[in-house]
Amino acid sequence: xxxxxDVALLRRFEPVIRYTRGEQFFPIDVKPYVESSSLWMHxxxxxxxxxxxxxxxxxxxxxxxxxxxxxxxxxLKFIEPLNITxxxxxxxQQGLKKKDPNTIFRAGRGRLARVGYTSRFIDALFSLSLxxxxxxxxxxxxxxxxxxxxxxxxNEEFCYYGRVVELNEWTILQYWFFYPxxxxxxGFYGANDHEADWEMICVYLSRDKAGEFIPExxxxxxxxxxGDDLRRxxxxxxxxxxxxxxxxxxxxxxxxxxxxxxEYLTELxxxxxxxxxxxxxxxxxxxxxxxxxxxxxxxxANNSSAFNIFKIPFVDYARGDGFSIGPGGDxxxxxxxxxxxxxxxxxxxxxxxxxxxxxxIAGENAPAGPxxxxxxxxxxxxxxxxxxxxxxxxxxxxxxxxxxxxxxxEIKKNRDRLAVTISEKSKSLTNLWIEAAAxxxxxxxxxxxxxxxKEIDHLxxxxxxxxxxxxxxxxxxxxxxxxxxxxxxxxxxxxxAHIRRAHHPASDTGLRxxxxxxxxxxxxxxxxxxxxxxxxxxAQQYLIFGLISMLSILVFIEAGFRRQLTRLISGFTIxxxxxxxxxxxxxxFWQIVVAGVILAGGYIIWENIKELYT
Amino acid sequence: MQRSRTVTVFAWLLLFQALxxxxxxxxxxxxxxxxWQITHQDFYMDLPSGLRGWAFATLSLLALLTGVRFFxxxxxxxxHAMLIQGLNLSLAIxxxxxxxxxxxxxxxxxCIFMVLYLNYSDVLNTFGxxxxxxxxxxxxEP
Lengths: 614, 142
Fold this sequence. Notes:
The structure holds two protein chains of two kinds. Chain A is an alpha+beta fold. Chain A is built from 17 helices and 16 strands. In chain A, helix 12 (397-439) packs antiparallel against helix 13 (446-488). Chain A is globular and about 110 Å long. The model of chain A is unreliable at 295-307 (pLDDT under 50). Chain B is elongated, with a radius of gyration of 18 Å.
């Protein structure tokens, strides 16, 4: 397709992005960003060195080939942190500006009020760990906002990067958005801050018989989701549209994309916590399976836990109540920048698009460009945009009927071949059996008879498999035939059958807490630590009693606020049962073993006697 | 709401537990030295027996009432039954750490069995404890 056709197609399905109030950064062209940045190189075990200073860097220079050995990290540095005078001046100016109350972000119910003590405690450790691991300095957001406004003053144009890919009869439109900064942590109580942010959505088109493009699916990149869970069918009500333009709700500061407005609880799993997370998942799953708890509504017990206390929850605010860009929004998109063919800066530059904070968890390190991930490997969404959203197995609608018919023909042919083979082998088996029967009781034929018997067994087994295959193919053929009828009626099946775990905004039902409860959530961990120190200092002789009492009171207050007394009592009782079971095993190990053997023996005797007399 | 056989059995088990607890209570009361006022030391030795007796008597009464609530399929019965097992187990573990009287072990075994029974799907579903299931991740949100 020509560049003009690509642009027209991208324009036709370009999204509308709705942001949350208080969002400071919006998608722009990379050129002014790169020109305002410097290029740095960080070889392993050495201090970083500036390769191209600020003001001299261009997209052409960025796209030059570089090779500096294993472990070398290239990165851009968009802004220098402000000094105290500049920061004070910025804050003063911001304070003087009369802000529209409709553009100010209010967190509402904090993320901490939505989770329990263990998560809050781990969260506190995570916050403290920011001091030890690398992070983007706190005043960087202010500096980035200033730099971003300078760029907009020169050319206030919001744009996206578009790519059109033809693959397996699909036409894929990729929309890439470049944000100069991600201030999720400092602006919206999220997990991380980093310079530069690349986000992407895909629209999947097929062609009808007349060659017209038909939108069939859309997929939005988002935290915690992958594969089939990323995409929605075009007629799914969850996928909001304005004409042919899908509506994206962008997370405040994080810019992650969501289908519906709301506040999403995303969970960050720390690498060293992974074994504990898996252990908790396994224990919860076994408990449910053992007590058949999931049978009530027909949902099989599965391994995915709804919530794990060893993951740190963060709220991604995608309310969509702020600025919007796109058709029908506050601002229209500028001219799309094409990524086909991919420009040199996208293909040649494998480094990070912002500060390399040396954060081992990587949350504070800037991302790489649209083609590569942080490790410099090609992103799956780039080289396999179909497989990325699990669509590589799905044919376009226009072809689905043909694919089914083709498959029916293949299976029928295969069945016919199988029928012939079965008939031939069946005859051979009969012949073998007749021959073996004729050899029966003739001593001189003993060896031949044994060989025949082996062949009979072998052939019987083979025939059994072939007949089973024949029957299975028959059932499959019937299913395919029904499916073909369904498709011919224009019924494409359930809208959301492919989704295993859907994005759902956090519900406020039953969680409408008072201001006091929110304050409690914010201060409880700190209070617990102060109480611990208090007991050690002033009542050391009552340490255990004091700690248990303090924790019990805190937990009880919390459960009351959260209307989770049932859960508290249930969890507490189950924990006590486990402790009691351990005591019993400790005290009566051999007696338990002997009793178990006696019971097993008795059961076996009972079953065998029952069999004798029935 | 229909009472299933599982729930009926559980209600009888609760009544049986109430009976057992009242026996334990009686045992504790019987070991009190009623002349404890005479010596100061006896006071401290025997007061816990009296307290234990009252604690078990209270738990016995609660188990009895909860058993009746189970028969009448009251929604809160499940939570009350769970609470009683928790209190019984707390008391049993506390006694195990102090004096290890012989009855703590059968009490523990019985309570563990009751906790498992309470969490069995038939019992849970009868009392509409889907909320509890959701909280534990057993039911997927629609």
